Amino acid sequence: MKIKRIEHIAIALKNMDAIKDVLGNKLGIAMEYEEHLPAHATTLAMFPVGETYIELLQSDKSDSGTNKWIAERGEGLFHICLEVDDIDTASRISHEISQMLASGLYHTMDWEELNRGLFTALKIQQILMSAVLALSDTPENVEAILKLVTAQSPPAVAAGLTSSISASRQDAAAGVLLRRWNTLPPSARKAAIDVLLRRAAWHGALLDAMEKGTVGKGDLSAEQAQQLVAVAPDPNATVRAKNLLAAGGRLPTADKQAVLDKLLPVADKPGGDVAAGKGVFEKNCAVCHSFAGAGGRVGPDLTGIGKNPRREILLNILDPNRSVEGNFRLWIVQTKDGQTISGRLDTESQTTVELLDAAGKQQIVQRKDIKRMASQPISIMPEGFELLPPEDLTNVVEFLAQPVLPTR
Fold first, then answer.
1. Co-location of 74 and 164 in the same domain
2. Rounded to 5 degrees, what are φ and ψ at 78?
3. In this structure, are 180 and 267 located in the same domain?
4. Alpha-carbon distances of 216 from 245, 301, 304, 339, rounded to whole Å
5. Which residues pair with residue 33 across a beta bridge?
6. Is the pTM of this model over 0.70?
7. Least enclosed by CB within 10 Å: which of 89, 147, 314, 375?
8. For residue 188, is it within any domain?
9. Partners of 36 in the β-ladder
């Protein structure tokens, strides 16, 4: 049977009938055809989803690559084929890649080609992973799926894989997901929050993680923050959710609190000098922050911050880690050649990650070169501004409290 173009994901199965039931009856995908491939003693069934296909392979020959892979690895993701133009080629590639997988050489595949395939087959990949959990819903399978979310994963792939965890019914799935929180990219974190809001036990685990500081209030979108309260499974969870969202962030240490108690009153000191405050801002803040169109973009734009109480403005200067928005956390990327790059995660693409370092310089890293990538539960903004003279703090607060940028 000739097919002009197939972009598909294949999976090796112990029980083809079971997954056919999941795809056909539970997910409503009608099988296009099924046939026997004598060359590899393999039964093949193909399910179309738009221009993408799921290919199910089941072998009854003990020495075949497919059967060897099943024996050693069990059910699950088999491989990805790109732009295969006939079924014989698809069968040959299936056999070759199954041998690669069985011999542990999966990492030798071209990551860019693999990512292109994952991206074009994203919808079917999500369905596939959900089907795996529908067949065998275990914490181990949840962990196996999340291990596929790596620094090399394009944003849509990372989000899709993470979203597939919603098919699990295991209470423990939330713990598996949250243990990997620091290594999840932003796209996957948003999907993870959506997943955790779906079940009562997972909602409780999310509240626990927020109370411990693993997940920050800033990691939730406005819609997710509303859901955190709206879908709370009981009155106690509702109270906990409201308290977490109302809190100003993590509690300061005793030493930090002593500094805050000493310096916060300077925010209320009358007679602040706007011009002097502008100089303090330009010297200490403008490399990262912009105000009325001038300055850097590493940190948040501070235009309009004057609508907040002056003590709150100073609090954020003196204790930048008190409440950190998800977009402004510190990320650390380690490359395969030994470099360590840190900064704010600015943008992600299918093949690259872009960070803004503390100097405002853009650092572009190819995904294929990344060894490890993780966020830190702290702001990219450094601490230590309590060392500025108190009059500088008064003046910079006076400057930031202005509704418009003062003229010279």
1. no
2. -100, -60
3. no
4. 10, 20, 24, 28
5. 46
6. no
7. 147
8. yes
9. 43
